[in-house]
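Page 47, continued from p. 46.
Same chain as before, 410 aa.
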Amino acid sequence: MNKEIKIGVLRETKNPPDRRVAIPPVTCRQIANKYPNVSISIQPSDIRCFTDAEYREQGCFLTDDLRDCDILFGVKEVSIPTLIPNKTYLFFSHTAKKQAYNREFLRKIMERNITLIDYEYLKNRNNKRLVAFGHWAGVIGAYKALRARGMRTDFFDLPPASNCKDMEEMYQYLQKIVLKPIKILVTGGGRVAKGAMQTIHALRVKEVTADDFLHKSYREPVVCRIDPENYVERKDGGAFSFQDFYDNPEAYQSSFKPYTKVTDLFIACHFWDPKSPKFITADDYKEKDFKISVIADISCDLNGPIVSTLRASTIDSSFYGYDRFKGEETIPFVDNRNVTVMAVDNLPGELPRDSSIDFAEALYQNVYDCLFVDDPDGIIENATIVKNGRLTSKFAYLKDFVEGKDGDSL
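Result:
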């Protein structure tokens, strides 16, 4: 007989509040049907995108006290005072890259003998992530980019995505607008970029090749998605190789500048290594024929490849201006010479119901068997940063970080 497992769904405690949840009501019913040895307790929340009543309708038990649970599920980091000793937690911890703001958080997790499993490192044998919100970041980020374009030009008006019940309602608003003949550029080829392209295609925008995007004029809006081979080149003039670029990013230089001369709206969805070249330098912005008016930096790498991303913005205040001559932040939508920046770093939170359901389905399909039954491929083990208060071998490199001996953190 399988051992009884008690799991708890946490209310989100990080500020600003996040309305997403790892286990929506419908998934609670799926878990109960498939794993009869697993029981679920829900911590009540007045901010969660699913109401307490929706959980009760699925027969869930609601309680503030989760001390009786074995495994606790959240989305973002858990506030330190609420951490329960000797438990197993699953959430996005933002600790494995030595994020300095979470150093004390990781220390407390270890001090309280907690086991920490991080969603970001749940991967299959091909090293592919099993659960992620990236697709929704792209879907919503592209919508916000278009919204910024409308606000900047006064050609059209779109409501905030957070005002929409779901993606369907958001796309209903989107399909009412008419775009002028602009050029939209998307960088990247992963989940985020595919989500962004999904939103752009909802407007039936024509997709064109990189060469045509750079050299042709159009009487209709067009979009182009480019990969690293289109925006970097080897410093020694050698042929581009993606694997080589991945292994040796410092051997490459940016070839992105021509895109700054023809692009109206830039949606950045790429992965960036700190050793990679910058896309746009401060001097690039100052050139007379610099054309980009809106940059939606979904990747949101601070001090990264896009100089105008001075800081992360928020869902409530999504846009800021960038004075491209002074290199300073300014008020958005005031001076057309400035670049409008969107750099929200928790975009999936704007459509929390859709993104939570999608995320939960990925957990159900790819992770719960490993967690509740058997884990022959070590998926859970490989995603465990701390086990019973001790760093696992895979994440042992965090020891100096935890002890404050690492010098400058990433």
